[in-house]
Amino acid sequence: MATSSPLRANQGAEPALVVEDVIAFCDFFYRKTGISLDASRRYFIDKRLQERIAATGCASLREYLSLVKFEHDGAEMQALINAMTVNETYFFREDYQLDCLTRHMLNEIADRKDPRRDRIRIWSIPCSTGEEPYSIAIAVLENWSRASDFDIEIIASDIDSRALAEAREGIYGARSMHRVTPRIRDGYFRPVGDDRWQVIADLRESVDFGLINVSDPLAMARMRRIDVIFCRNLLIYFDDLSRRRAADLFYDALNPGGFIALGHSESMSRVSALFSPRKFPEALVHQRPLP
Asked: What is the mean pLDDT of residues 124-137?
């Protein structure tokens, strides 16, 4: 006769997870990542947890959480993060912000710099599978007349190591490429078969990809002297406290006068009073005030 277990088996279906254990998991995941897992996504959460429990051979969610909390190398924690994060993006998404970047933001930044010694630094977070930072690089090369005058560094980071591996490889299908014009495609990509395209090597090497967890103050402390941050559709996964903490960290990362661009449904004014809104013809962005 079977004894009761935190994993309650259902005939013909995957075992359901005990509500109390899922709540404990969501609290743990929030403390580690700042991401608030909503109860409305319970099916998604349960399915991904069941996959990781099976992959590690654990008998229950409680046993699995113990494994994650006490492992030495953090490998399963990274696998869990990869499983729980959603990467949905494509090239030139919300491109009005890229127009704003090349028509206004970069000119203001460049006017305060000496091209002989000062670098312009642009940060894409979360960069997902790389479409955004590559779009930024192409937009700057194509549309900013002063690009050749400056050393421009594009940094791209994400919490998902699997997505970063795909970004570094830079191979994309029709879904990611649907807004790429034939001219841009032929200039910055090469065909790799089956209606798939790879970003050319020069462009891939121009983007510095790295693993960063916004909830890790030590990792965020390394990000300084940034001029523009693209942080689109990240804060929607945070609660109010995590948003305020992230805003503080982004403020510290930016140079005075630097800009941050958020997703169309996000608003920095509802999160932090540290930034000043800047309304350009193409987009509303936020700026770290100059002294």
From this structure: 97
